[in-house]
Amino acid sequence: MRNLLLILFFFCGWAFNAQAQCFLAYNEQNQVVETFCVGQRITFKDNTTGGTEYYDFDKSNGLDFNAQQTSFTFTAPGTYTVTQLKNVSSTLCERTFEVKAAVPSSPPVIQKLVLQSNGIQLQIQASAINDLVVEQAAAANGTFSPVTTLARVPVGQSSHSITLLSVSGCFRVRVINVCTGQEDIISNMVCAQGLQVTAGDRQNIITWTANPSPGSVVNYQLLRGGQLYQNLLGTQTTFTDAQVACGRTYTYQLVALLNNGSQSISLPVQIVTTGTTPPAAPFLLVSFNLQNQVQVESFIPAQETFKEQSIYRNLNNGVFGLLSEKQAKNAVDATLPTLTARPCYQTTYADSCSLTSARSNTACPAILTAERQQNGQVKLSWSAYEGFPEGVESQTLELLDEQGSVYWSTPVTGQGYVDVQLQDRFQRLTYRILSKARNATYQSYSNTASVEQAFQFYFPNAFTPNQDGLNDTFKAIGKFASKFELQVLNRWGQVVFESKDFRQGWDGTYQGKPAPAGTYLYRFEAVDVNGQRLSKSGPVTLVR
Fold it and tell me: DSSP H helical segments within 119-182, as ranges?
């Protein structure tokens, strides 16, 4: 049957008999009805000659007669076109009916009224599918007038944006198009919430009129930047925000929490904070980098803005003078004339309103010196870091490798240390001091200070390659060579051994055979990490 109906529908030349009384609608009391209600069971019957009837109950979603039903219950209000197919003939009959909404079990509730730049947004809680008329009045005791109709508002919670020229006054919704014809099913009333913000001296002054919605306001919520900022009393109508920075833009919104659980939310108000009072002073931290330049970093209080900073410096406790202007928060002083004169620094900064702060704390980096003693030990001395809020908590002496990474470290106290166990991995020993603040995360490095270990090589005057494990090879005794070359020559000037690795020595053989005992000549040349060249030659005796 289904295939037959589809074939007839697409290929037969059916004619529509629109709105002819070819069939009637009956309610459950078998009464003829033209308008019926959501939830009512309606039966459709042919009004002409007998025969088999097929019905489609909603033409808007396409014709389908395969259900072969004559009764139907409509679940949503609206206008529906019902189509009859009789005796699988070539004639279709259409009739249009109005389905009215059922009476809701409870009136709709406006849960939230949000003001927008071009209208309002309503969040509605409904107990039935209904058409709702949105009404607006100039005041809570004013006359309400319709502004728009919301069709088929669903059961439960839903949001609706409505374009309006004016968003002031109070709002409610009224249920319409119900079976009973009632016009008195009305929601709660929610009134628009106003908000005004003005800029003071480094503060924003926020005022509003008490929300006029029926009943009292439980409390207000002030939003800043879209986030909850302050909970305020329901009787409050002003608030001063002093946690602001001059020149920074802030956006506020006010939420009125009403005693029935509804909310009224104002338009967002944006303002740029102004002021004449200078910003709070910065905190200054200074530290040397690996190039022995001083990094000057100002920490700006959280509520302030930053435009640029000025740096002041003195040497050896002299008078502070302006070093540079219009600098970033983290600047570098590459102009130190010498490390023998200890520098100290202060900074000021301008905020976004071009107001200049007071000067920061005085900050002086630790200055480190390193001196190689006659006994080979290294004597280290330094000045303590000055400028941490609660002083220095700890100090660490660090030895750096050629890449500037920490190779070795040890805790130190006071202002001096003697390194008695020198590392033989590096000819140049580079040290620095790390100072850490007490009860804070700040830390500072001193300058790097270096000493050179002696570049020397020695050679034995004889060796015995007899495989007894004692003096079996002839090789250099020394370290710290970046380049090295050793040659051993016999009495006829032939090179019997050569090496470019000072760790490799001559085992007394030549061309794979034991060389004869006797006196040989060695020639040696090496270069250290500083480019210093060392040359040496002399006799060596091979003993067998």
Answer: none
Residue 67 falls in which region: left (phi positive, over 0), alpha (psi -120 to 50) or beta: alpha
Residue 7: predicted pLDDT: 37
Do 330 and 295 meet the contact criterion of CB atoms below 8 Å apart?
A: yes
Residue showing tokens 């088999």: 52
Q: Are 161 and 121 in contact (CB under 8 A)?
A: yes
Whole-angstrom Cα distance, residue 347 to residue 70?
Answer: 89
**CB of 331 closer than 8 Å to CB of 296:** yes
8 Å CB contact between 351 and 304: yes
CA-CA distance, 228 to 230, in Å (whole number)? Answer: 6
95 in Cβ contact with 19 (< 8 Å): yes
Residue pLDDT, tens place only, 453-484: 877 788 899 999 988 888 999 988 888 877 88
Ramachandran quadrant class, 541 (left: phi over 0; alpha: psi -120 to 50; beta: rest): beta
Cα(419)–Cα(381) distance, integer angstroms: 11
Question: How far is Cα 198 from Cα 211, in angstroms, rounded to an integer?
Answer: 20
DSSP state, residue 193: P
Who's near 507: CB < 8 A, 6+ residues apart?
465, 472, 473
Q: Residue 383 gets which letter from DSSP?
A: P
H or E segment at 109? strand 109-116
Tokens of 113: 């009224």
DSSP letter for each residue of 252-265: EEEEEEETTS-EEE
* Secondary structure (3-state) at 456: coil
The whole-angstrom separation of Cα 229 and Cα 310 is: 34
What pLDDT was estimated at residue 89? 62
Q: How many residues make up the chain in this entry?
A: 544
Q: Is 7 helix (H, G, I), strand (E, B) or coil?
A: helix
Q: Give 11's contacts (C-beta < 8 A, 6+ positions apart).
A: none
Q: Is 127 helix (H, G, I), strand (E, B) or coil?
A: coil
The answer to whether the beta carbons of residues 134 and 171 sit under 8 Å apart is: yes
pTM over the 0.70 mark? no
Please give the structure tokens belonging to residue 416: 């001096």
Provide the b/e sequence for 355-389 (b: ≥16 CB within 10 Å): bebebbbebbbbbbbbebeeeeebebebeebbbbe
SS3 content of the chain, % helix, strand, coil (to 5): 0, 50, 45
Integer angstrom CA distances of residue 184 from 107, 160, 173, 175, 488: 10, 22, 11, 8, 119
Nearest residue to 432 via CA among 332, 290, 330: 290
- Collect the ranges in the chain with pLDDT lower than 50: 1-15, 18-19
pLDDT digits (tens, 9 = 90+) for 495-527: 999 999 888 899 999 999 999 999 999 999 988
Whether 399 and 388 have beta carbons less than 8 Å apart is answered as no
